[in-house]
Write a structure and sequence with these properties.
The complex is a heterodimer of chains A (254) and B (96).
Chain A (H helix, E strand, L loop, with lengths): L3 H15 L5 H21 L4 H12 L2 H11 L7 H22 L18 H8 L5 H23 L3 E2 L5 E2 L4 H5 L1 H12 L1 H33 L30
Antiparallel strand pairs in A: 1-2
Helix pairs in contact in A: 1-2, 1-3, 1-4, 2-3, 5-6, 5-7, 5-9, 6-10, 7-9
Chain B lengths: L1 H4 L5 E2 H11 L8 H13 L3 E6 L7 E6 L1 H28 L1
Antiparallel strand pairs in B: 1-3, 2-3
Classes of the chains: A mainly alpha (254), B alpha+beta (96).
Chain lengths: 254, 96
């Protein structure tokens, strides 16, 4: 028997016990790494591989107990379509305002009329669909509210909506009038709460973008070949990243 | 215990569990599977942070380290524990 067999069985059982908990993917990955190391250490000490695997698994605890511990420590954060939608919208706004905040301050009368470029909202929505914890949603909702206030103010004071959803302000007057709101937004985006969410979201967001691009190419190829393109299910990008449906919901929950 | 064990250096879960077991002389032989959920709770509370670390010739592992807030919490809790320990020692000494 391969020493991976009991490990695979254990991981599979644990995955089932964790159900749709939002930390399932992370916990399963860490448990697998943990058990592989535990088995390797035992084998290095001269224990037979099969025995090493069963000992390591026994020390770790039954999948049901591990799942119960997770639910006890981090309760009830499951995938909910409503949360997905709300988070996606908030994510789009958060990334939009991040793009805005990343630009250097504009001097009044600088003559720079290029609009602040915002990321593709559909991609942002898909990326947002990956972030589902209540804490992350609250952080993004705050970012969204701050971003909206700043955007509304900029438009009210002469800023113009650009072709990519950005706001141009050639004279700098809108920025000057809305400086307090922009700075409040900047402070929040530079703060630990948002940075933590962003650090977690960024790789997923990028993976989602790659996935959408791959799906679009597949869609175009299928259309060119005269076959009926798949409307919602996207194929893997091959990068190991998560993949999603065109409607922004994840193809798999973990 | 988790915070104290991470005070000096970041550790991944397997090493953390081993370090707690070793430092306690085997007294605290934690159920391994319950440690990761506890780590997630501490991380969500802002006391720890983690990142994937590419091991040499190994699968990537998530490494945990104390945040400044975690260090503060550790100092507070350690002092509380020392007070409790002193009190218990006096009570036991008086009773024996």
């Amino acid at each position: 028997m391969s020493r991976d067999d009991p490990l695979r069985s254990y991981v599979s059982e644990l995955r089932a016990e964790l159900g749709r908990h939002c930390l399932r993917r992370r916990l399963v990955g860490e448990v697998e790494a943990h058990l592989r190391e535990a088995i390797a250490v035992r084998v290095g000490e001269g224990v037979a591989p099969d025995r090493a695997a069963s000992d390591a698994i026994e020390s770790f605890g039954a999948p049901r107990e591990v799942a119960a511990a997770l639910e006890r420590e981090v309760p009830g954060r499951h995938w909910l379509p409503a949360v997905v939608a709300a988070t996606g919208a908030a994510m789009a706004a958060a990334f939009a305002m991040l793009a805005l905040a990343a630009l250097p301050p504009r001097e009044s009368g600088s003559g720079d009329s290029a609009p602040w470029r915002l990321p593709d909202p559909d991609s942002a929505r898909v990326g947002g669909a990956l972030l589902l914890s209540r804490d992350a949603t609250e952080v993004l909702a705050t970012a969204q509210a701050l971003g909206r206030r700043a955007s509304t103010c900029l438009l009210r004071h002469g800023g113009r909506a650009g072709p990519f959803g950005g706001i141009s302000d050639p004279s700098g007057k809108a920025r000057a009038a809305c400086l307090a709101l922009i700075e409040a937004n900047d402070r929040f985006l530079a703060g630990p709460a948002f940075r933590e969410v962003l650090a977690e979201a960024q790789p997923r967001f990028e993976a989602a973008e790659r996935c959408v691009a791959a799906a679009d190419r597949a869609h175009d190829s299928a259309a060119a070949a005269g076959s009926r393109p798949e409307a919602t299910e996207l194929s893997s990008t091959g990068s190991g990243g998560p993949c999603h449906r065109r409607d922004g919901l994840p193809a798999a929950t973990a | 215990m988790v915070l104290a064990t991470l005070r000096n250096r970041p550790l991944h879960g397997y090493a953390l569990i081993g370090a707690i077991r070793t430092r306690s002389g085997g007294v605290f032989d934690l159920p391994e599977g319950t440690v990761y959920p506890a780590l997630y709770r501490l991380e969500r509370a802002g006391l720890l942070r983690s990142k994937w670390s590419p091991g040499v010739g190994r699968r990537p592992r998530r490494v945990y380290e104390l945040t400044p807030r975690g260090s503060e919490m550790l100092s507070e809790r350690a002092e509380e524990w020392r007070e409790l320990s002193r009190g218990l020692t006096r009570v036991i000494a008086a009773a024996s």
